[in-house]
Amino acid sequence: MEGTDSGVENHVATPAACATYQDMLDAPEHMVAEIIGGRLYMHPRPGARHATASSVLGARLGMAFHSGDGGPGGWRILDEPELHLGEEILVPDLAGWRRERMPELLDTAYFTLAPDWVCEVLSPSTRKIDLMRKRPVYAREGIPHLWLVDPVERILEAFELHEGRWVLIASVEDDEPVSIAPFEAITFGLGALWD
């Protein structure tokens, strides 16, 4: 059974204000572990729809912005980086840093520098955590851009942070063209994420 596409709530949370980094390290290999608000949340690795949307989006943006192939470059785009943001330890599906803020890729297991863009691919087992727990942390840390991708509804919503609040700047669906900040220098069809 593929956890994130099953429609079943698969996350596990420990009691408030007691999770440690060691708890994350001790999590089973087949689980993604995060600490939010002092709690350890665990959920299964992504299912096929989730993984496809994340992989294809990462490849599209990575070629143009990470590698500079068919786009302007200037970014570091990473799959599932571990972010240590204050007391929280989050693992977004994708994250990107402008190279002027992260000139060299550090050889570390996690990052303490907040990214310039994060993307969460919503699935039944992570939707509530992504929307209600992680999104406020991203705002608190001043991350300027947040994309939410829903592979079931075939929607991408993009937000910019303004005065500490998320403002919806674009919503695209099905196979509409995507050319959205901070990656508006290229255009691609959203439908590639669903195939």
Folded structure, characterized:
The protein is of the alpha+beta class and 195 residues long. It is built from 3 helices and 13 strands, in the order βαββαβββββαβββββ. The strands form 4 sheets. A 6-stranded mixed sheet has the order 4-7-8-9-10-11, sandwiched between helices. A 3-stranded antiparallel sheet has the order 1-3-2. A hairpin with a 4-residue loop joins strand 9 and strand 10. The radius of gyration is 16 Å and the shape is globular. The protein starts with 11 loop residues before the first strand and ends in a 6-residue tail after the last strand.
Keywords:
195 residues; alpha+beta; 6-stranded mixed β-sheet; 3-stranded antiparallel β-sheet; 3 helices; 13 strands; globular; disordered N terminus
How does the SSE layout of this entry go?
Blueprint: E1 12-13, H1 21-25, E2 31-36, E3 39-44, H2 48-66, E4 75-79, E5 83-85, E6 88-90, E7 94-98, E8 117-121, H3 127-140, E9 145-150, E10 155-162, E11 165-173, E12 177-178, E13 188-189
Parallel strand pairs: 8-9
Antiparallel strand pairs: 1-3, 2-3, 4-7, 5-6, 7-8, 9-10, 10-11, 12-13
